[in-house]
Amino acid sequence: MKKAAKILFALVALSVSGVFAHAQSSPTILVVDMIKLLDEHYKTQEQKEKLKADAEKAKEEADRLLQARNTLVEQYKEALEQSNNPATKAEVKDQARSEAEQKLQEIQRVNNELQSFETNTRNLLQQRFQNFKTIMLEEISKIATGIANRKGANLLLDKSGPNLLGISSIIYSDASMDITAEVEAEINRGRSGSSASSSSDGSPKITVPLGK
Q1: Are 206 and 120 in contact (CB under 8 A)?
Q2: Which residue among 69, 84, 168, 175 is least crowded, i.e. fewest CB within 10 A of its CB?
Q3: pLDDT tens per residue across span 162-173
């Protein structure tokens, strides 16, 4: 009887220890909204203001090129009209015709310059923001990982990004698992009054040739 009791006790002890071992091996999972943190980051707002200022400068240059083209178009029309005027002398017609051809070439050159400028500017602005996003996501990830480690988590998931189906990879998570607010608070604690004069984001800059 005593032997049976010992065996039963051993089985119970083994079962209990197994439960504790299972509990200890269960992963601690937390979630974070990376898109929200990026969009609301104070550096993102500063970067958008910089890009907006450069876009406005670029628009001024585009407007200058457009105005130059319009002027050339008017000059081309005048020269063409003069070359087709029956009352105009032959030598004047020839000169006007030559001038019209020259203006047409200049119009095509400015058109190409305008199109190239707009394309390059758009690509540069997009590349700058993409480079900025890459750097910022790395920075935010480090902060989020630090908080997750302090909380004893061994898995941190981003709940913001869509998967291949176009929906969030996390269908449901308890609010207590979400550390987005804590990460945002830590980001803002690192904000200084001199943030506007912080170091460069390492992305290519736009040089707008104004006032040619």
Answers
A1: no
A2: 175
A3: 776 777 778 888
Residue with token string 């003069």: 82
Beta bridge partners of 156: 30
Q: What rounded mean pLDDT belongs to the chain?
A: 82
CA–CA gap between residue 59 and residue 76 (Å, rounded): 25
The phi-psi region of residue 202 (left if phi > 0; otherwise alpha if psi is between -120 and 50; otherwise beta) is: left
Domains of the chain: residue spans and CATH: 25-197 (3.30.910.20)
Let me know the angle formed at the C-alpha of 90 by 88 and 92, rounded to the nearest 5 degrees.
65
Whole-Å CA distances, 53 to 6, 49, 56, 57, 59: 81, 6, 5, 6, 10
Distance CA 68, CA 71 (A): 5
> Is the pTM value of this prediction over 0.85?
no
